[in-house]
Amino acid sequence: MSETLPSVGEMLAATVPMVRTLNLEFVEATPERAVLRLPDQPDFHNHVGGPHAGAMFTLAESASGAIVLSAFGDQLGRAVPLAVRAEIGYKKLAKGPVTATATLGRPAAEVVAELDAGERPEFPVNVAITREDGAVTGEMSIVWTLRPQS
Hints:
It holds the Pfam family DUF4442. This is DUF4442 domain-containing protein. The chain is an alpha+beta fold. Helix content is 28%, strand content 35%. It has a 6-stranded antiparallel β-sheet with strand order 1-2-4-5-6-3.
């Protein structure tokens, strides 16, 4: 008998209440790319009728977390992934549902090699937030670390 492991989306939804609060939808989560969608929800609109900046930040940060878990989930027994810092730029007005696509800024093997060498590696994750017509409404760069377990 085999046990089914939870997906990255299920793990994040179970452990990060904001993922559930915003009803984020997991479209894709692989070590190469993570894609999450924020549905259009009036309760999370801003003063111009689009998704609030805080909701877009949470969407992008959650996409970055999904790719980190996908790429480094096999390291969780010896390291804790933590966000170190983030910067977001809002480029165009977002209306309707928006999607965040995250990619790693360094090869995962390099990060793991630093962890193997006893270091606390840092690595960037880049996220593009787009509306349904494909226009980029925001960009986030978030730096993560793998903190070795004590």
